[in-house]
Design a protein that fits this description.
This protein is 5% helix and 40% strand. The protein is mainly β. It folds into 2 domains: 104 residues, no CATH class; 95 residues, Jelly Rolls, CATH 2.60.120. The longest helix has 7 residues.
Length: 256
Amino acid sequence: MTTLETGYWFGYWRDTRDPTATEAVPPMLVNVPNFLEIWWNQSSGEVFFCPDNTQNAMVWQKNITDSNLSSALTGLGIVPPPTPIGTANQVIVTPGTGTYTFSTPQNINTGASPQFSGLNLSGLSASSFVATDASKNLISQSASQVKTALGLNINTSRSYTTRSTPAFSTNYTPNTTNDTFVVVNISQTSVLLGSAAVNAVIGGITIANASLGGVAATQTNSLSFIVPANSSYQLTQTATGIGAANSILSIRELTL
């Protein structure tokens, strides 16, 4: 058998004897200058290691049981892998038999609903509204953008339109797509034993009213109301007593 007299050897050896027993070390290794080996006596469960072999000196160190294998590896210059350590409130490490399980304090999969007491997103603007884009990403929105999205645009160019030759019991449809704010100015004359009244009616329902009665007087009144988009309104009147009367002074409409 050829012996190795130069070089480097590292390995482990399993036997039913101690390494100090006769011919325990294979003959081809007895003269290797750098001899690093772990020896496990599988009969006794004892572990030995040889951190150095100075020309056949065979310096063996014995550990009581194989539970001290870690120190044996350290003696051979072999650093065992570090033990994972978790981070509070971030990563949980749970040791098992030959395994480590890493987990988070709460589920964060795509179907989970994690809860946080606060959330700071550097990609958003301060003091702004938050919305989602077409890809469902959170984005910042200004007040004007929110108004636009909700259909609350402020049109600074709008103005009242005066309806020409207004009349009672006539249907008016201000706008088919937008709501309309209507202001009606009327003149009412009542007598001591009579009264005058004007009603604004939408869909058969009176939504505004102005009346004068019990005195002999003439008075200017007004009614204001909103007409829903694509709806019609009309003004109706009643006058009781000789001399009682109503007249429309103006109707002004503002598209919302």
